[in-house]
Predict the 3D structure of the following.
Amino acid sequence: MQLVQDGDPRAFEVVYDRHGGPAFSLAYRMVGNRVVAEDITQEAFLSIWRSRSRYQRERGSVRTWVLGIVHHRTIDALRRNFVHERRRTSAEGLEEREEAAELTEVEVVRRDEARTVRSALDGLPGEQCRVIELAYFGGFTHMQIASMLDMPVGTVKGRMRLGLDKLRRTLSGEAA
Amino acid sequence: MTPADHDRYADSVAAHLLGALPELEEQALARHVMGCASCRDEVERLRAAVDALPRSVTPLNPPRHLRRSIMGAVAAEAAGAGAEPRPTGLTRVRERIRSAGIAPRLRPVAAWAGAALVLAAGVVAGYGADELSGGDPPPDRRVAATVDESRLAEGSGALLLPGDGGPAVLSVQGVPTLPDADTNEIYQLWLVRGNERIPAALLSVGADGSGTATIPQGIDDADAVWVTRERPGGSRAPTERPVMSVSLG
């Protein structure tokens, strides 16, 4: 990462090769549209290149930093273009077609990791999982979620907090 | 800072980490967290869960051209050339709209003819050369909108259907700015399939009376695209007759 921060484009290729897949996957999961996901990924990586000096190792991994920027960019796109009405079922169908036929070791590890986190999410009470997914992957604000689910904003915030806390404890192996 | 203020902010930490706070609330919370050790601890405690969320996503392979495009732009910037990145996807669609343009106050028939001329000129001029090389996708299709002149007297619009299967994009010109300070209404797009009215996108129109909205869903089996004026955030069903419509039949 030091080479990237020094402005070496070849070093940045390594960053893209390691994190481009998860970045594109996250954008695609959120917008459900391949073209829009490509646009967001491109904008995010150019932004990462331009702001490379801001990365601080002590604040988290490169992957967390990259995915955080992609997430923010995608939320911006969702709120700007309002692509909320995509169909999750058709998006899942596309995912199947886009998955690599041959898995590298890294891809196998990522799929295992995905299964673990999804399993932890599925273990949350349904209403907690729903508000977390609507917020994080749907890009909806707490007020929009409250309106959609016909519940007070305070309840939505409370379920977000309880859900994240339970997810954290599950993933860390901490007793509930 | 009263205990009640603190509790209010503390309740918003999870929403903040999930990106679910509106901008003003986000800014207020960020200021509070800077000066509140308890909330900083809560942020760090819950951050681990939020950081795990993107890892739940099914891994996909990005297209190879995306890598070329990004690295080309990065190399150009590193060399100080300042070259523009090769446009991908939606950027290409937006650029086509900009280069094709829609004349303000064009009525549907004239808009059709104008759009056809512009598209033909584009092909003759060779724009989109990569589309003309091997494996040409079908040409883009542009369908002019019919406008209710009693409510959008100066408006015009057209729907661009990219030949490469990208998302359809509606662009409008000469229509009143929405949302505005008085009503806070917004334009909402609908896909019409038989008797179904499916929310498709929201459209903001700026002070110059123009705007574009991308329709992420496939619209192959839709009969029409409607535009209505709705409450902020959109409605579940149209609350008025369309002010603009594009027939796809």
In short: Residues 9-31 of chain A form the longest helix (23 residues). The two ends of chain A are 37 Å apart (CA to CA).
